[in-house]
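I hope you will forgive my troubling you with a question about protein structure. You will find the record immediately after this paragraph.
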Amino acid sequence: MTYGLGTDFLVACEIVDHPFHQQADALLQKLLADEHDFALAPQTLAEFIHIVSDQRRMPVPLVVTDAISRAEQWWQAAEVVRIYPDGNAVPDFFAWLRQHQLGRKRLLDTLLAASFRNAKVTRIISNNGKDYDVFGAFEVVEFR
């Protein structure tokens, strides 16, 4: 089974001082041991780099070069399936924004959800389940 990776999961996996680091790491290790793969989109990596290097969000932010290196490790991992917002995902993105009357703070999650859906990914690892519930297309696996 392929699990879509939410940015919050990547942050929790990579930041040892994160309140959910142990839970995220345990879930990651279990899924790896069970030979699952992970769907990852470029926009998730961009958001990851932004968050972990932001001094307003992180008590001890990573320097940007370290954040980039960690993002690259995820992107290059053998267990990662790279997904992209393609010609089918973008119309779904627009339709979901209109249908659910989503605002500007929901743009990235909606594009990610449309990309997952078009890649046939039905499970997403995230503690932000309500962000994906509205679409009625995913099972959200939390790690708290």
Summary: The radius of gyration is 15 Å. The first strand starts at residue 2 and ends at 5. The chain is about 50% helix and 10% strand.
